[in-house]
Write a structure and sequence with these properties.
The structure is a homodimer.
Chain A (H helix, E strand, L loop, with lengths): L7 H6 L4 H9 L2 H15 L14 H21 L4 H11 L4 H16 L2 H12 L5 E4 L15 E5 L4 E5 L7 E2 L10 E10 L2 E11 L12 E5 L15 E5 L2 E4 L8 E3 L5 E3 L6 H34 L18 H36 L6 H29 L11 H8 L9 H17 L17 H6 L13 H24 L4 H7 L1 H24 L8 H19 L1 H6 L5 H18 L3 H6 L5 H4 L10 H9 L13 H9 L9
Parallel strand pairs in A: 1-5, 2-5
Antiparallel strand pairs in A: 2-3, 3-9, 4-8, 5-6, 7-8, 10-11
Helix pairs in contact in A: 2-3, 3-5, 4-5, 6-7, 6-8, 8-9, 8-10, 9-10, 9-16, 9-17, 10-11, 10-12, 10-16, 12-14, 12-16, 14-16, 16-17, 17-19
């Protein structure tokens, strides 16, 4: 039955123009073209095959990743790909590798923190991959708290060098990707000591390995930190451990754009504002939010297609069973995730604009929006990665037993995704940063300082404290203004209530610590509002294509009303809506699910994912699930022989009652 | 620093008798002794070592499991272990294996569904492991819906045999553990056809493999279905695929306790009540709830100990940082899970009593409590497994970055645990069964039929619809009666509201389908009430030991009030409590966290887990985390050589700009 499209009847049901939705999803026609071209390039190249990944031992897996990385780089050079194309190609190769850190952290660190001279020296080497770099910040005993790092960089004026040293076991660098086996260089973060005094944590370019034979340089101990969650997944990456025994580097390998150490060992601030670093943070977090929508949409695509293929129950007398996507329990779990994929896509797109805006302001020395932009990106990173990690696992469960097979693609997608909740800022730590900013914003409301950006709504304080939701019928919940007001009122009232609780503590820091769990909830409410409001803003734009906007309106409503249902306690306890209105929202949600149902397959087709990228038997475009599951099973190494290795030693003696004498 | 107890200061803080708590956790002094003895036996035996499991290839991993299973059986025979001891030993070996299915499903199926003659023939063989059996029910296309199975067993009166056949691809047996490579026999579920008529699904004992050379018998195709979630984890199990091509078995291999097929091919019901099967279901689900508390407590033990070792932030001027367990955000995520571990333990213990009660009633032909017992166990299976799966992943996140390492033990614990949400009844399907029972119970309230068992509270309908929570100060929430009433009122009001919504549908089945997501929520509310009420009942017993009961009272309150906070929308929308009372509950919860804090380490010590069983560097009893993490890293195969395999082929050509000519 090769070539048959088992989902054709589903695709025929769609009430909108899928090709136009693909453009909306990609962001522009150009973006779609690049993405589509690169996805096909990767999918058609046998070197990038990945369906056997879970069965490979660590060493073979890792060697295979080295091969893919080299091949990708070769293709990038041969085809003279642009940076945009190269990034897309690497993302469709879909395998964590040292190159992620080289391009994503090492190069940007030098660009952001290196002087002009340093950039001129190091960037050409890095751009040609004549050196391979990583980003060595976290230590065995130190993650979130960068100021707690223990590695030291002591200036020796006698030789004009820094001495990099790991004074304790817990100061061992730990986790940096690409460090364990591949990187020749690293940007190492260490406490600067000069003239016997500490001057905070700074970055230093340190060569780790010989460029001749790849052996670690004297004084350097380096290795891989071992296996991580899942099979395949992040085990393709050589996250590393690194210890320094008084390693000397020239003074000019400290990244000195913001602060310089002179020949005499004096610290001199440059005229470059420290705030520049926030620009990089906004950039990195924007990419993380964008990655969240990619990972989430992959999982949703798999679960949606399989839910249309899978049938269970519902037949009398042995007839055909009901597609599981037709069950309201399945819809109420799946469709909010589909809506979230689109919501995160659009808020990610908006963050790209925010990054440009912040960059332009920084260049004009306008720092006024920085704290807000920083809080906003921190919060969205936290919100979208937590939601995505949970959603991937929910999608796996929505695929029932078969979702547990590696061939479903979902276990590896989960295992490779979840570290996003921890890296680049632990999600709870980030929420507390948002909360701190919100409390400050609320406390300044009376002072005439106008809240900016995503907190601008707080200027309507009186309104938001008094407003009553006007919903009287279920359909009233389809109005964007009604939803927006409810979410604004909820977020603001929660912030105000927390601020009031805080004010009862004599010591504000103690209060903040004591109430931190409640404060994190207020931060979540604020961040959810951002996502909802950016989705609504997107819908205010002109969106061409038959039925496209209507579908997005439905998804926007689902996203918001599902959140309202999940966080109902917030909305009710702050009096933003009544129990009756909550019940109407639920009724409306159910009718929205029915509206999505015929469009569900087309809505995931719009992601335009190749079967290669999805990497899932359950999510195949053609829906030919059972035949391919069956075929995939026989490829397992255990099926190399009918009688398993170990039968003679362990099974046969058991069956023959001869264990007593067996040597096991 | 070997031998130092880094957590000694934490243990010294405990305000209760840990040894007495160990007895409470185990259930009795006898149970503690057996468990303690078996745990040490396994931990001290090098054959049962498991810390390298994640690094083994599938074949080596599987062979190693065969060795452990044979060794365990040898030890069981040599030491003449009792059934209780043997079960404990197998559970501490802590590795899914074919023996789980042999003892847990194959033997019980024959006991429960076989006639006296069949039991006499097959059980001695199984008890000595002269045959190894599995339980072949689910098919590639059929899981939850047993009545949808496609495999056929057609009676042939000419030869007095059944012909077992797989008519379609989707009828392939798929998932049964132990089937793929080991089992010689299976209980196969198939549609019985005799005289051209279908007679529902029944079990048949089918030999799969030769007892001489282990080759599959003619007409049988059997193999492994391939890799599953995680490394190590369930990949030690040979979940299998099985197809029949007209395989013939004697008529007396149909399990005929309830229904018999005569020599002439007639179906005759025996006088054994069909309800007997529910007894088995109650038993199996009780073990699943008990397993949930084991898995959850392991994860909590790891996260709690590591949270006391790990320090981050909080120091000014480079002093010692704050233990992360002292942060309220950490406490508010961790301590409810600690409380849940105890709550699930006690409800599991109660289920053991329920099973005995049901069994005795069945023997007396009293079926009156069966539907309630069935609903109750279905709901508790769903509730505890879903909560435990989420909790293990939450514990992993609570360990920050290091929780992502396999050496933390948490990734494998998660991967090996999650199928519990799907097997033995998908958790959502089970909730709907509970909801159906609850709707029936509510509808019969007026009719004079008294609700029994865990639904007995519904008899106080009027009370529960009118009662008002009396809480005025935070401490009022420490009263069990207050908590119980709030949970009863919430569950009952949600049920009544759902019943009213249902009654508006002309077709009740359509209504049930349409409202299923809301109905599942009512079922959850009811099941949470059961857990809370059984915890409270436990505390009404005499519990010896200094401070033991006080600690349990705190945990019980935390369990309940955390649920109240998470499901606040339920409580507020049904008017069971006011927003003010909700806020007081939150205040009380925070003070309870402070009370648990000094006892946290001792409360996880009370689980009495060996370091072998925990299998976690982060959860080590002595808290010597960093040294052991560092040592574990170097054991990874990637660290066999300093320069990785693949350097010459892939890294060097990249660095030397020689990729263009390289063959990759």
């Amino acid at each position: 039955m090769e070539g048959v499209d088992y989902l054709a009847h589903e695709r025929n049901k769609a009430q909108f123009d899928v090709d136009e939705m693909k453009i909306v999803w990609a962001g522009s026609r150009h973006a779609f073209d690049v993405s589509d071209r690169m996805a096909r390039l990767v999918a058609s190249d046998p070197v990038f095959q990945k369906d056997n990944r879970a069965m490979l031992s660590r060493k073979v897996l890792f060697k295979n990743t080295l091969r893919k990385a080299a091949h990708a780089w070769k293709r990038i050079i041969e085809l003279r790909l642009s940076e945009e194309e190269a990034n897309q190609l690497r993302s469709y190769v879909d395998e964590p590798a040292f190159t992620d850190l080289h391009w994503g952290m090492f190069v940007p660190a030098i660009k952001g923190q290196g002087t002009e001279d340093q950039q001129q020296k190091w960037l050409p080497l890095a751009h040609k991959m004549q050196i391979i770099g990583c980003y060595a910040q976290t230590e065995l005993g130190h993650g979130s708290n960068v100021q707690g790092l223990e590695t030291t960089a002591t200036f020796d004026p006698a030789t004009d060098e820094f001495v990099i040293h790991s004074p304790t076991l817990t100061s061992s660098k730990w986790w940096p990707g690409g460090l364990g086996k591949v990187s020749t260089h690293a940007v190492v973060y260490a406490r600067l000591i000069t003239g016997g005094q500490e001057h905070g944590v700074h970055g230093f370019i340190v060569q780790l390995r010989s460029l001749d034979d790849h052996m670690p340089l004297p004084g350097i101990t380096v290795g891989d930190i071992g296996m991580k969650f899942g099979s395949g997944a992040y085990n393709t990456m050589d996250n590393g451990v690194l210890r320094f025994d008084h390693v000397r580097i020239p003074r000019n390998q400290m990244l000195m754009r913001v602060m310089q150490v002179t020949r005499e060992g004096k610290c001199v601030q440059s005229n470059v504002p420290r705030q520049l670093i926030y620009g990089t943070m906004v950039y990195v977090r924007q990419t993380i939010v964008s990655d969240a929508s990619s990972a989430l949409s992959r999982a949703v695509c798999i679960a949606t297609r399989y839910s249309a293929v899978r049938r269970q129950f519902g037949s009398q007398d042995g007839g055909i069973e009901t597609q599981v996507i037709d069950y309201k329990t399945q819809q109420s779990r799946l469709f909010p995730l589909l809506a979230s994929a689109y919501a995160f896509r659009f808020v990610g797109e908006w963050l790209k604009w925010l990054y440009l805006d912040v960059t332009q302001r920084l260049q004009a020395s306008d720092f006024s929006t920085l704290p807000e932009a920083h809080a906003c990106t921190a919060g969205l990173k936290s919100l979208t990665t937590s939601a995505t990690a949970d959603a991937i696992e929910e999608c796996r469960k929505l695929c029932g037993g078969h979702g547990y097979l590696t061939s479903s693609g979902l276990p590896e997608l989960f295992a490779v995704y979840v570290p996003a909740c921890t890296y680049e800022g632990d999600n709870v730590v980030l929420l507390l940063q948002v909360a701190r900013f919100l409390m400050k914003t609320v406390s300044q409301l009376g002072s005439g300082k106008k809240p900016v950006g995503t907190t601008a709504y707080m200027a309507r304080a009186e309104d938001l404290l008094q407003c009553h939701c006007i919903v009287q019928r279920a359909e009233d919940w389809s109005k964007p203004s009604v939803i927006l007001e409810a979410f604004e009122a909820r977020a603001f009232r929660m912030c105000v209530a927390r601020a009031q609780s805080l004010s009862k503590f004599p010591n504000p820091e103690e209060g903040f610590a004591e109430l931190s769990a409640d404060l994190a909830e207020a931060a979540i409410a604020h961040c959810q509002l951002i996502v909802v409001s950016k989705f609504i803003e997107k819908l205010e734009q002109d969106i061409p294509g038959k039925g496209v906007k209507q579908q997005l309106e439905i998804l926007c409503n689902i996203y918001a009303l599902n959140l309202l249902h999940k966080h109902l306690g917030d909305f009710l306890s702050t009096g933003c809506i009544t129990p009756k209105q909550a019940s109407l929202a639920n009724d409306h949600l159910r009718s929205l699910y029915s509206q999505v149902r015929p469009n569900a397959i087309a809505l995931v087709d719009a992601f335009n994912y190749t079967d290669h990228y999805l990497g899932s038997v359950l999510g195949r475009y053609d829906g030919n699930v059972y035949q391919k599951l069956y075929e995939a099973a026989w490829k397992d190494p255990l099926n190399d022989s009918v009688v398993p290795d170990g039968y003679q030693e362990y099974i046969r003696p058991m069956l023959k009652q001869q264990l007593r004498n067996a040597r096991l």
